[in-house]
# Entry
Amino acid sequence: MKPAFALILPFLLSPFAATAESVEEFLRKSLKNNINAENIHPGAKYIVRMGESEFSLNKDQVLAYISEIKGAGTKSEIIEFKIIGTTEEKDIISVVSRAKMQQTIGSAIITGEAVSHSIIQRKNGTFSIIFNHSTQ
# Structure
């Protein structure tokens, strides 16, 4: 996996499930890869854009990525985080956010910024991502 992709994917995964949390708390927690399968909508789609390159992932690919980075002992730190805007209608929340992250993968340290647009479903107090587009 490309190091830049490894940095941006946690941002892509931003809004996953949590109970009794605010959207911001949920996004921050998710940026640190604290997510699981129940937090991803079955039909979820993730798109990461880095310069001219674009990657598209489904739920199974995201879960494989999470397993891979956890197995590698990757550590993620949020340097800056800001919600730019939100819109909420019934159980659907649209969030645009910006994050600056640092990841330690072995002895390599990677820092990057991304803007993400996420569509989140809230069901029974739990957030799950339906769609996420992130640009680095």
